[in-house]
Amino acid sequence: MTDFHSGLSSKEALSLERRGLSNRERKIKSNSYFAIVRRNVFTFFNLINIILALLILMNGVDFKSLRNVLFLGVAICNSLIGIVQEFRAKHATDRLKVIVEKTATVIRDGAEHIIPTKKIVLGDIVVLTAGNQVPADCRVELGDCVADESLITGEPDGVVKSVGDTLLSGSFIISGTCRACAVAVGENSYGNRLAYQAKRIRRQKSDIVRTINVILAAMSIAILPVGTSLFLAQFEGDNLTQAIYSTSAAVIGMLPEGMVLLASTVFAVTAIMLARFHVLSQDLYSAEALARTDVLCLDKTGTLTEGVLEVGEIVPLNQDYNDSLLADFANASTDRNPTAIAIKGYCHGIASQRRASNFMPFDSHKKCSTALFDDGTKLLVGATDFFADKLDPSVFQQATELSSLGRVVLFAKNNGDSFTPLALITFRDKLRPTASETLKHFAQQGVSVIIISGDHPATAGDVARRAGIAGWDKQVDMSRVKESEIDSVVASNVVFGRVSPEQKRNIILALRRAGHTVTMTGDGVNDVLALKEADCSVAPASATDIARDAAKLIMMKNDFDSLPQVLRQGRRSINNLKRSISLFLIKIVYSLMLSLAFVFINESYPFEPIHLTLITFVGVAVPGLFLSFEPNYNRIKGKFLNDIFTRSLPGGIAIATGVIVTALITPLLSLTHSEYVTVCVVASGVAMLINLAKVCIPFNLYRGALWCAMCLVFLLGVFVFGWVFSLTALSSMGFVALGICIVCDILVYILVLAVTTAFVRRKNL
């Protein structure tokens, strides 16, 4: 054991540091910036895009080829968005740490030295005074102090530490001075173990991300064999150029890149909108996670409460008590601990009747503060258990019962041999002014609220009661709960007290196993494991570094009344994305169906990349973007993947059917190739506009104007700028074919819509 007077020698410290026994954090390898760029640029879909563009340009660089490679713009945007998001994630991960102090005072070679905290080695004697953060797990060797471990353990009260007691890294010294020996440093310290565990926890992917990944995986499997088969079927004799254009159009139609770009854009804009409410989004899809939440887990301190105490109830024990006596003590006090501050706040405006001659601050051994006055009066405030031998048993019992709801101190008068208890003063966490209204909003939205706290369950329950949380009386002391009992305990309680950091995480996991989408709020090191496991995590700006870095959303004004706005914005984003992404999926559905069909149909594939530009612009891209920003705060129901597929199948199948019918009747009506192509493009565009009308129902001024604008753009594209899109004028037989195709589109659309609607209704029963 290191001598606390002389400490380690410089030679011993250097040897320990070389052996890896220093306070350095365990480094977790993260992707380099080059690796991130490489992963986002050299993707399978980017490769497909580049190959298609090169094949088109190899046949000559002219107006036709250049307009047919405009699809590369979407691929470039996708890559840039992915790179920016991963850069942000890497930066946040690399900053993840618990210890914020940069230097510490240690004893080496018999003298005090100020060194970086990362240079502290096992066995170092660290000098700690009021205001210092403990840099490593230490054992007190000399002196005593009061430590605030609330950000580590969740316990709100200062803890007296004497010789032999352990100080946890990341806690703060409130008062006192001590010398402590570092017994666990670096990756082995309590705080850094939590930080390491937090870094290893994977973020939960959003339902939208999972859906897009499923579609990407499916298309990755389908594109090569389908595209190759179509190319071989279309390639005959000298028509290599046309086969390349046709196959490129089919493959581009099957690429879901526009869907990825739309989702990224919508959530990026949502993050900007959240910033107006002083909410910082650290995760692109965090608003979606909160919007889907049906259980909100709150850490009491700093979330529902302001992190300060206020005087709750004063129970007089003697007729001599009056508020002016307490005001005398408050005005004399020089203490700055939470209890003293609360008493001063309670007595604000009450005139003092006596002049203090001396004040003895809180003493960790005597557990009280004492004020002496000129008239000989001696008033004290202290822990009831320290004065148990001087109290009537009934008074002590009363104090014990009150302590379950919060901190309780004794206010007494002590004149010589006369000890007179005056009152029991209770303290409670000060509730945030907006807490009740915020929780009421979540209750109205069908979101259950539970409290997870390191405090006594009765104390946390009292806060829940004052905040208006339903079921506040369903409380459990988690220090008495076994790990095997967590699932059943979580299912039957609302307030969880005496919760360890590991138990907080296990509660979140139990809720998720039960099928809930969980949002967790917290501000301390003890919350970080739960924050990382939750579907959505929220922290105030005043939280510890590690809690902020673990959170997806940060409340910049330290006030959680912004959460309802985040809920609204998230619901709007998801509801509108369902509608918008279903439009993109229509293109994938009909492109895949047509690619398979034209392997067997003895007719050329009708579309070139430029044709899809017109159809996608009026039926997918522009309306999808504008609809994604419309107010829509309905509660989210159903799986994202199921929802968008049932919305997209009618339009996709209808367009594919219409094109196939046109291909089959073209020889019968003696249509030219140009007329055949024009009929397919126009009919497909009309079908997309019909589907857009269905999406816009019920029409309002905004959606009506959008639909009319798209119809106008399409008409201009066909009749004014038809030459740009390789369209031609139709003969009488061409108009007949167009009519047949449109009728087929409408009939098939109605039929498939009826089937999918019936399926959805049955699914929801």
Describe it for me?
- This protein has 765 residues and is of the alpha/beta class.
- The protein folds into 5 domains: 10-25 and 98-200, Calcium-transporting ATPase, cytoplasmic transduction domain A; 33-94; 207-256 and 572-764, Calcium-transporting ATPase, transmembrane domain (Up-down Bundle); 273-305 and 431-566, Rossmann fold; 306-430, Calcium-transporting ATPase, cytoplasmic domain N.
- The radius of gyration is 35 Å and the shape is elongated.
- It starts with 9 loop residues before the first helix and ends with a helix.
- Residues 96-101 have low confidence and may be disordered.
Secondary structure layout:
Layout: H1 10-18, H2 33-41, H3 44-58, H4 63-67, H5 72-94, E1 103-108, E2 111-116, E3 125-129, E4 137-148, H6 150-153, E5 159-161, E6 166-167, E7 172-184, H7 190-200, H8 207-234, H9 240-254, H10 257-275, E8 279-281, H11 286-291, E9 295-298, H12 300-304, E10 305-316, H13 323-332, H14 338-346, E11 356-363, E12 368-373, E13 378-383, H15 393-403, E14 408-415, E15 418-431, H16 435-444, E16 448-452, H17 457-467, E17 475-477, H18 486-492, E18 495-497, H19 501-513, E19 518-521, H20 528-533, E20 536-540, H21 545-550, E21 553-555, H22 563-597, H23 609-627, H24 640-669, H25 673-696, H26 701-719, H27 732-764
Parallel strand pairs: 9-16, 9-19, 16-18, 17-18, 19-20, 20-21
Antiparallel strand pairs: 1-2, 1-3, 3-7, 4-5, 4-6, 4-7, 8-21, 10-15, 11-12, 12-13, 13-14, 14-15
Helix pairs in contact: 2-5, 3-9, 5-10, 8-9, 8-22, 9-22, 9-23, 10-22, 18-19, 22-23, 22-24, 23-25, 23-26, 24-25, 24-27, 25-26, 25-27
